[in-house]
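Translate structure to sequence.
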């Protein structure tokens, strides 16, 4: 909290305005394209905090940790709301959640423990590589890659959950971008896959957010209003603005070609990833 001493009211207003705008963008895209907010939030938070770091006097050394931890913490209430809505409509298959859930939790715990010892640059490399992969996954026709009519038995499904948990906790996403294609390729109907993925988002985000708070305790030079590697100013700003805009995105989705928009967004993700690699290789 040492950066609090450097706070200026106008700078704080600028930071809040940027965070509210980021929440609006991530919420709108989530409603429009069905993409998880973490894909937008992590690079968005990093850009905002990095741009204002000199004004507030905090370090950028562990900034990637803060962005990932904050993104995961934001997923907790938004994921809870989504999971409840899907559960009321019978869209959550608890058996699938249980089968994938144990592996997910183990993966999340391991990933947060590993993240403690990773540098910010290492996390950037993992994130940039992962979203390059996810950008292709987003536009792939999962039905053409059908591998079976039901999920594999253990330990295969548990191992899949483990991989989903590790990657999600290391890049700050709720896992739907990974779990929905996996379930779809094994014949799970898309509505049930999406509903079950929303519940799995809680299985990922709750232990991951707690983990990032814990591993960041005692770290110096974090952005103001941070507890460990979770920034609660961003948490308070992004959640209401994203939830406000998500219905507008969903409404727009009924009037436009979502497939075309997903292609555009996947190209945008590729550009973000390649730009991150450029900054890593040519600082």
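Result:
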């Amino acid at each position: 909290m040492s950066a609090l001493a450097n706070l200026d009211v106008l700078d704080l207003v600028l930071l809040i305005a940027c965070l509210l705008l980021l929440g609006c963008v991530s919420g709108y895209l989530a409603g429009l394209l069905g993409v998880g907010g973490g894909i937008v939030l992590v690079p968005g938070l990093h850009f905002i905090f990095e741009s204002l770091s000199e004004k507030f006097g905090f370090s950028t050394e562990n900034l990637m940790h803060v962005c990932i931890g904050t993104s995961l913490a934001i997923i907790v209430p938004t994921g809870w709301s989504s999971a409840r809505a899907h559960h009321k409509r019978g869209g959550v298959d608890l058996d699938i959640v249980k089968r994938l859930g144990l592996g997910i939790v183990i993966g999340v715990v391991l990933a947060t423990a590993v993240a403690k010892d990773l540098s910010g640059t290492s996390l950037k490399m993992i994130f940039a590589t992962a979203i390059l992969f996810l950008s292709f996954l987003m536009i792939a026709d999962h039905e053409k890659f059908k591998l079976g009519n039901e999920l594999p038995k253990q330990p295969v499904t548990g191992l899949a959950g483990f991989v989903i948990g590790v990657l999600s906790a290391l890049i700050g996403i709720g896992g739907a971008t990974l779990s929905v294609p996996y379930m779809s390729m094994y014949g799970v109907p898309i509505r049930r896959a999406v509903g079950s993925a929303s519940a799995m988002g809680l299985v990922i985000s709750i232990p991951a957010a707690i983990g990032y708070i814990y591993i960041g305790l005692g770290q110096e030079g974090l952005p103001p209003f941070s507890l460990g590697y979770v920034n609660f100013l961003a948490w308070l700003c992004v959640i209401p603005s994203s939830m406000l805009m998500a219905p507008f995105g969903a409404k727009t989705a009924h009037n436009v070609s979502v497939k075309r928009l997903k292609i555009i967004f996947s190209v945008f993700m590729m550009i973000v990833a390649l730009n991150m690699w450029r900054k890593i290789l040519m600082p």
